[in-house]
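Customer escalation, tier 2.

The customer says the design service returned an amino acid string that "doesn't look like it belongs to this structure." They asked us to rerun it and document both sides in this ticket. The original structure tokens are below, unchanged.
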């Protein structure tokens, strides 16, 4: 190694060693309230923004009957109600550059800084509809795209690409609910 390189590495090591005790001294005393750590997840949310999906072979015979939305302290939620049926309810929930119609692949405009395509592995007889969310922290628009060959698609416009999760709940009457939550921030 060259002498100049050794001196530079030694200088970097000395600076790092001197800075470490200074950083430790900034920690609050036991009686003071600690600042929120930058590495701590928002509201404990660790969902991420990767696609959430079940096996594409899962199909449910009950129809999608409606949607409901709600605001929670840490996330916005949309629930897709599905009537009683047989099989297993599958789904695919993923961020996309453009929501597309099933079968045609044509783009479907959905308001928001980011878009989530929700595919429910169940048919629907619902009429096309759009729900806007003025004043909501995360949701911007929910649009029924289409039901095609036993699958139902929705486009969900959100403020930005944020952590999200999806899961299925079973109702007391045997129906199902697909729940999609999108966090207010990272």
């Amino acid at each position: 190694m060259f002498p100049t390189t050794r001196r530079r590495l030694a200088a970097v090591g000395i600076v790092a060693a001197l800075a470490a005790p200074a950083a430790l001294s900034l920690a609050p005393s036991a009686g003071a309230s600690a600042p929120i750590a930058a590495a701590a997840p928002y509201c404990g949310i660790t969902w991420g923004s990767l696609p959430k999906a079940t096996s594409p072979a899962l199909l449910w015979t009950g129809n999608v009957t409606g949607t409901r939305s709600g605001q929670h302290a840490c996330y916005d939620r949309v629930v897709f109600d599905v009537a009683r049926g047989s099989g297993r309810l599958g789904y695919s929930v993923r961020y996309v550059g453009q929501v597309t119609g099933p079968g045609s692949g044509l783009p479907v405009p959905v308001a928001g800084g980011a878009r989530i395509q929700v595919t429910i592995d169940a048919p629907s007889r619902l009429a096309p509809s759009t729900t806007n969310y003025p004043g909501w922290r995360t949701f911007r628009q929910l649009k029924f795209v289409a039901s095609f060959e036993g699958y139902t698609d929705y486009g969900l416009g959100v403020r930005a690409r944020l952590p999200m999760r999806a899961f299925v709940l079973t109702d007391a009457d045997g129906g199902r609910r697909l729940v999609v939550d999108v966090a207010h921030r990272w």
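Tier 2 assessment: The sequence is consistent with the input. The longest strand covers residues 139-148. Confidence is low (pLDDT under 50) at residues 14-30. Sent an explanation to the customer and offered a walkthrough call.
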